[in-house]
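Methods — Computational structure assignment.
A single polypeptide chain was analysed. Its primary sequence is given first, followed by the predicted tertiary structure written as structure tokens.
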Amino acid sequence: MDLALYHPDLGYYARAVQRSGRAGDFFTSVDVGPLFGELLAVQIAEMAALLGGSEFHLAEAGAGNGRLAADILGAIKRDRPALYQATRLHLIEASAAARNAQRDTLGPLAERLAAASAALPASFEGVIVANELLDAMPVHQVVMREPGLQEIYVDEVNGQLALIEGPLSTPRLSAYFDDLGIELEPGWTAEVALSAVDWVRDALSRMTRGFAVFIDYGHEARELYSVTHSAGTLTSYSRHRSTGPESAAAPDWLREPGDQDLTAHVDFTSAQRAAGAAGATTLGFLDQMYFLMALGTERFATLDLKGRLALKTLLMPGGLGTTMKVLIFGKGVGTPALTGCSGHVRVT
């Protein structure tokens, strides 16, 4: 999965400036239009006010070509010019091709760009935003057998890529479930995103003070590792079609490596534990629908027809509104009552 997505020459994300949208393979909240970024800007501005100071550092991890950052900055410039002048933007993106396109995407807003790199700063105070990043981090896939937990590997069989089972590559995999108090039943398949857990812990460790807003799809551990998802969640997206989890020796998501997206649902319980280990506190965990509704009370009244259609897409139950979850952390800021968490807080 790491090679298929992030190989510097052949990886799915490394080879293209943008993968989402109508012409891409999947659809995100950013593709709906600038409204998503405008609403996020409301929450980010409140966080900036809580932090205070003469400079405000905003980092987007998994920034792609900078479309979401442009929507956020555009709204801040329009509605909060003083905050715009104080903002220092950091765009974190693994793909060199996407990084090279960021200044063009930002246009005049590029004047606020402080850095564009593949990694977060070593030390950071401000706000980190990551939209649909954790689900694209490489996972270990495991299966429970009668003798115990086995890992699923990719190998070559008769000249073709295929899946084989073998001993665990790291004891962290069995410890992962032990720490969660979860027992997989024989035959159940599951994904463990150690890379996502490590990334969250590292990101929040680098943050000396501030907030982090992660928006992604997934579940708390007790649901993710249950009979409901006992076939696993690893899947591929190509031309807006998902293969879904499969148990075949050579599933569709194994084909055409580097030419389709690979993704697995996020374990939000482990993400919260990782952030806690880095000294952060969970301030909110809720459906995107409730988060955006709490932020947009004033903005909704001014929307034209196109804007109302975009809002409907962002809030749609069963779609982006409830599939996407918002997880907010604070570090060194106490436990403020954030506007985005002021409404009906619920995770479906």
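Note: The chain has 13 helices and 15 strands.
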